[in-house]
Amino acid sequence: MRNPKRLIAMLAVMLSFINGQHTLAQSETPKLELGIHFATLRSGPFDTASPGVGSRVTYNFTDNLSFEGEVNYFHKDGYNETRRTQALFGLKPGVRFDKVGLFGKIRPGFIHASQIQVQNYPCSSFGGGVTGGDPLPHCFYAREGRSSFALDLGAVIEFYPSRKTAVRFDIGDTVIRNRSLLFGIGTIPSSGYTFTTHNLQINAGVGFRF
Length: 210
Prior knowledge:
It is a single chain. This protein is mainly beta. It has 1 helix and 12 strands. The chain has one helix at about 5-25; strands at about 30-45, 50-60, 65-75, 85-95, 100-115, 115-120, 140-145, 145-160, 165-180, 180-185, 190, 195-210. A hairpin with a 2-residue loop joins strand 10 and strand 11 (about 190).
């Protein structure tokens, strides 16, 4: 070779290119993530906080867009200890850096209330009958198990201690399309109606990336 300096320069460029490609491959975001977390949902007419646990599966299309599904179970809610199961599926867009990621989320799904409670008591506990005359024999209150549409809107912050692990915090507004409780006098219940509530939900957990 007449010009060894040129050969050395070419080898240096090739080694730099190979090393750069190797570094880029190492920094690529893993496609699949499995997570577990604790959750809190504030809901109901008394704004009670329901503790829960959940799991999540995330697929990263790119560094900036992911699709995920999440299932949560809330053991007790309010004075009547309603149990709720929540399932959400949707997109998580945002920006990701080496050690931290900032995202939004929009995930529709449903929430199922599985508690069934029936109480039977004299109408006289309300101070008399409907027209002020003799009280009717019994009144009742019933709450049946039911499923409602839910929509999770909020923000996510993630920290990456290593390429294979993530620590994640969610905060959002869980919008729930509710169906009213059934109220009645005697054996005739009133007709129900639907209404929308906004409920604060916070998750904190870890993920394992593959």
